[in-house]
Amino acid sequence: MAAPFDTPELGNVDERRIPALKPGAMAESKPYVAAAAHQEPLGFPGVLEDGWEAKAIGHMGELLSKYRSLQVFMDICVKCGACTDKCHYFLGTADPKNMPVARQDLFRSVYRRYFTPMGKIAPSLVGARDLTKDVLDEWYNYFHQCSQCRRCSVFCPYGIDTAEISMAARDIMDRIGQGQKYCNEIIGKVHKIGNNLGLPAPALLDTLEGLEEDIEADTGVAVKLPVDVQGAEVLLVTPSADFFAEPHILGLIGYAKVFHAAGVSWTLSTKASEAGNFGMFIGNYEQMRKISLRIREAAQELGVKRIIFGECGHAWRVAYSFLNTLAGPWDFLDPRYPVPQHILEFTNDLISRKGIKLDKSGNDGMVLTVHDSCNVARGARMGDKPGGQFTIPRAVIQASVPKFVDMHPDTICEKTFCCGGGGGLLTDELIELRVKGSAPRMEALKDVVEREGVTHMAAMCAICKAQFTKILPYFGHDREMVVSVHQLVSNAIVLGDND
Amino acid sequence: MTGKGVVVSILFAIIFYAAALILVVGLGVKIAQYARTPAPLKIPTTPAPLTKGGVAFRLAREAVVFESLFKGNKPLWIFAILFHFGLAVVLIRHGRYIQGEIGPLVALVQPLAIPAGLAMLVGLLCLLGRRLVIERIRYITGPSDILMLALLLGITVTGMFMTKHIHTDVVMVKAFFTGLLSFQLRPLPDDPLLMAHLLLVAALMIVFPFSKLLHAPGLFFSPTRNQTDTPREHRHLCDWAARLEGKGN
Ligand code: SF4
Ligand code: SF4
């Protein structure tokens, strides 16, 4: 288990403090290595075997020839350092290897050694290194200190996205038997049971039935949470956390109420009972595709006309940006709607058409701010205009609550900070990294709490919600300070036959 | 031409032909590699333009005014703009050494020679300074990064000396280079400063395709910057991904 550590002191968000370097500060931080039982079901070797070096270099060559991003990013970094102070993990830990360019250089040094003339002729001149066990260990530790949030790519003059490099590094490590337990175990559960939490179908049905009873007891209205309903209009694919814990589950109730109030028939699916796609975190196209195809199959089997995704950041990136590539074409769905849609697009559209009514007094006493999830902000979009991923969630929140304020402009929209737990790092053994990495977000939150009296922070991602629930107490906040966006909708919505 | 002059001229002719060849072929190979390598997924850093025109405009903003760098680091942006704009003017001005007739653009920037050279010099010195002074930047700086700046400084300083103080015989220089273009050997002035300048330039041309100078063409191939944000509207599928579908798994 992780050793004790100090929760970082929060500074003034306006000062944009950049820490002095503390080399090696996080050298020991690493997630559990996957056991053979987690590796082999995904087709990866169970353990690191002799000859892994050559295999790793071979796979690196393959990735370089398959991903333009990787090839170009390896060559064109000028070491300008514009990215150095942009990573929440660097800002929170001061470990220089958490500066995005330094993280890239762990990979680039090996690339140079084996794939460039300069690295072969004059390795020390260009910082080229042989791939040794030490280097591999360093890869393992520091490529699992990157949440693939893409914040660095916003500020890089060439758009170099360290997430692409972390994904490639993790893929290489998987292929040589040095995978990460947390991600690979979860992917195994998706294939075997259908969702990340390993919630089997009967348990899911049970939970939903219980929820229906709760809602009816609460509101007097029989709001349904349908599962595997043939011929429903909408298939809702949502992160399995929505079936499991607060505040996620309150968001799920919100989706159900919106569908109910709008009179749109919908269904969940036991086959696609997970929106998340950890195939992205491990940089594995085939896994990402296999996980996505479940959604296609579920949609075809149920004969739905539309697919809508629940609140989840990386799931929305995979859904919005990749689903058409991975599991399309979607010609069997209703062409009048984008595939897939986000639940916030759906709800926002209803609000603006007056298809549902919201009463802000349902959230009386709350002052909201919103945490833009990194994958939604920088890896996807909502609506038909660039930046809809920022305006639509805000519009829905503002329609639901009496007061809303944004956090510091350097920490929202495209410049948003990761919650600290994204990218496959939401595991207990990384708690120090998660707490420290959340410091920039916590600093901006503290600012609006003190200046504007913010009481709650809305999130639209299962990982963000779980991460904040866990780390808010470290900074003296209540864990219930984080809420689902649709939880706010749920509190405010006027259900037709409920007066 | 004296005997020594002939030898030197031949030597420089060979060096420049070789450097030009390496530059053109090397860059060609790299650009072909970037163009050939598929981008299997839509990964523009969003918010991103929805149209090709929008992407062209985004790339133009990145290439000309360094939009992202401006967001990222203002002092660095100033240094980078100083150096690159100075360089652009100086490069255009050097057109007069290879054009028979001086074109209008070259004539236009002619009076800017000194300020442009100074901008380059100041920009480079600031870029070097921050590599030595700022802890984070020192950490990520390698020997090749310093050498690159030293090379550029060498070129700038020798060039400026010739413009300002020790004028070299520019008519002869022009004759030499226009001669190279038409495969005729003409003499170079016997001037050590000029030779140093030319040697450093040749070195720069040679390392270009093997170094971080690839950022110049690379920017236009960066998927986070050159893709439209249209994944739901158009199915994006690269060849190797399409082959996976063929396998039916
Ligand atoms: S901002 Fe981009 S070019 Fe500059 S050091 Fe970082 S990755 Fe390299
Ligand atoms: S992608 Fe995010 S976590 Fe990874 S290096 Fe960049 S800023 Fe840091």
Structure description:
The complex is a heterodimer of chains A (499) and B (249). With 499 residues, chain A is an alpha/beta fold. Chain A has two domains: 13-186, Fumarate Reductase Iron-sulfur Protein, Chain B, domain 2 (Orthogonal Bundle), CATH 1.10.1060; 193-405 and 454-492, no CATH class. Chain A is built from 21 helices and ten strands. Chain A has helices spanning 36-39, 52-66, 68-76, 88-93, 100-115, 117-121, 133-142, 151-155, 162-175, 181-192, 201-219, 248-262, 285-302, 313-327, 343-352, 374-379, 388-400, 431-437, 439-452, 462-471, 485-492, and strands at 234-237, 266-267, 306-309, 341-342, 357-358, 367-371, 403-404, 456-459, 482-484, 493-494. Chain A has a four-stranded parallel beta sheet. In chain A, strands 7-6-8-9 form a four-stranded parallel beta sheet, sandwiched between helices. A two-stranded antiparallel ribbon of chain A has the order 5-10. In chain A, helix 2 (52-66) crosses helix 9 (162-175), helix 5 (100-115) crosses helix 9 (162-175) and helix 13 (285-302) packs across helix 14 (313-327). The longest helix of chain A has 19 residues, at 201-219. Chain A starts with 35 loop residues before the first helix and ends in a 5-residue tail after the last strand. The model of chain A has no long low-confidence stretch (mean pLDDT 96). Chain B is mainly alpha-helical. Chain B has a single domain, classed as Fumarate Reductase Cytochrome B subunit (Up-down Bundle), CATH 1.20.950.20. Chain B is 69% helix and 0% strand. Chain B has helices at residues 3-36, 52-65, 67-72, 74-93, 104-109, 113-133, 135-140, 143-164, 170-181, 192-207, 215-218, 223-226, 239-246. The model of chain B has no long low-confidence stretch (mean pLDDT 94). Chains A and B meet through helix 2, helix 3, helix 5, helix 8 and helix 13 of A and helix 1, helix 3, helix 7, helix 8 and helix 12 of B. The structure holds iron/sulfur cluster (2 copies).
